[in-house]
Amino acid sequence: TGKIAVIMQGLSGETKTIDLCDTDEQMQRMTVKQLRGKIAEKIPGQGADDLRMIFTNKRLDDDSALLSSHGIVHRSVIQLVILVPGGLAS
């Protein structure tokens, strides 16, 4: 089988495939923090701590949460927003 990946939808509507892991067992152990790091690798100059990710209208804020607890599976679409310094996050 191929890699397990999610689709990242960026700020200007662009999409990128983010490879996460190789097996379903690894996917069951993936955390929000690991996903944040993988996405940060694909965005030059963007720190992982500034990334805000949304899946099915829910913010992925708890870095220790498992992706599987959010229902994230292969080819799920993760929307990305950037936290603006001094801005209000809702």
Automatic annotation (TrEMBL):
InterPro entries linked: Ubiquitin-like_dom, Ubiquitin-like_domsf
Classification via SUPFAM superfamilies: Ubiquitin-like
Entry superkingdom: Eukaryota
Gene3D superfamilies in the record: Phosphatidylinositol 3-kinase Catalytic Subunit, Chain A, domain 1 (3.10.20.90)
Domain Ubiquitin-like: 31-87
Protein name: Ubiquitin-like domain-containing protein
Organism whose genome encodes this protein: Seriola lalandi dorsalis
Lineage of the organism: Eukaryota, Metazoa, Chordata, Craniata, Vertebrata
